[in-house]
Amino acid sequence: MKNHQVLLVDADDNHRKMLLKRTKWSNCGYSIVGEAQTGLQGLDLALHLQPEVIITNTHLPQMDGLTMCRSLLEQLPDTQIIFLTDSCEFECARQAVSLGAADFLLKPTPPATLQKTLLQLRHKLAKQQDLAHLRVHYAKTLTQQSNLLDAPLHQLLELVRSGNFAQAKTVFYHLQQEEPHLLALLDQLCTMQVVSEMVDHMSQILPEKDFLTPQTSNEGVFETIWSHLRTLYHKLGRSLRCMQTDSAQTLSARACAYIEQHYMENDISIERLCETLCVSPSYFSIIFKRENGENFVPYLTRVRMEKAAELLRSTDEKTYSIAQRVGFGQANYFSYVFKKYYGLSPSKFREQHI
After folding, report:
1. Are strands 53-57 and 80-85 parallel, antiparallel or unpaired?
2. Do the bridges between strand 103-106 and strand 80-85 make them parallel or antiparallel, or are there none, so unpaired?
3. Model confidence over 161-188: pLDDT tens digits?
4. Residue range 90-149, pLDDT digits in tens
5. What are phi and psi of 319, to 5 degrees?
6. DSSP code per residue over 127-165
């Protein structure tokens, strides 16, 4: 089994090297993929390496460990975090719990204590992997369910082509019986992928009407079958169009409105937003990117940066005050993001725009 990847972030060189050397990483099923000394360095490495586990000190230069992980979890919500702290501070512990920390360990941390935590965490990571496999299996199942009409449609059309209308009526009756179940299934699944695949299947299976050239004596039977199939096809098409336009646009509009109302909160996250909208993060991410041209985090960052730029232009508030007003808990991290976005520090930006 492949080892789980760990990023170690600790400003204390001696403590970090002690853990690296004395912890039996491989025996516990883990491997170190990177190490960092500051919060900003840790965040950049984590976004690049995407480790499954981060072990970090709460007190770090440039950006504290809690802020670093909060920013990281907005983009990589499944990352597991083990916090290290020099003292048992209640506020740190409370925030760590709110982030869903795997554990909260005091420094200096005995390697045996860390190993025990890592072994316990393996069960949670294994469940995450199982869930990921189930999601893949579920997606395949949905695709298979989208083929429900293939066999009877093919059979029906072949019978009509051959002039066997007696047997065609039997198959047609079966299709009529299946339609309510199919439409009910669509209501339950409510996914564009499944409906789109059904429409594609029917468009490939249904030939032009004239291609069938039915026998004159069976024109009534043929017209009934053809009318029913075309009606079902158009029902599926309407469902698909509704999902693609109204639902997607409404979802995107609601998300943008939510961001506009909550961008100043430093704990805003895609998980919290999706809970409000009652959709899964994966489905939301696809729709939001398609409708807005960018993912949730870049969009949120852009909104915050534009609000901050306006405050810098129109007020004389201090940088740390503006940082808090646009959702940043730490002024130095705000300045880092602002400069990365505009190419200027907040103070230089203000000088050029007054």
Report:
1. parallel
2. parallel
3. 566 656 666 665 665 555 554 444 444 4
4. 566 667 766 777 778 888 888 888 898 898 888 778 766 665 554 555 445 444 544 544
5. -60, -40
6. HHHHHHHHHHHHHHHHHHHTTTTHHHHHHHHHHHHHT-H
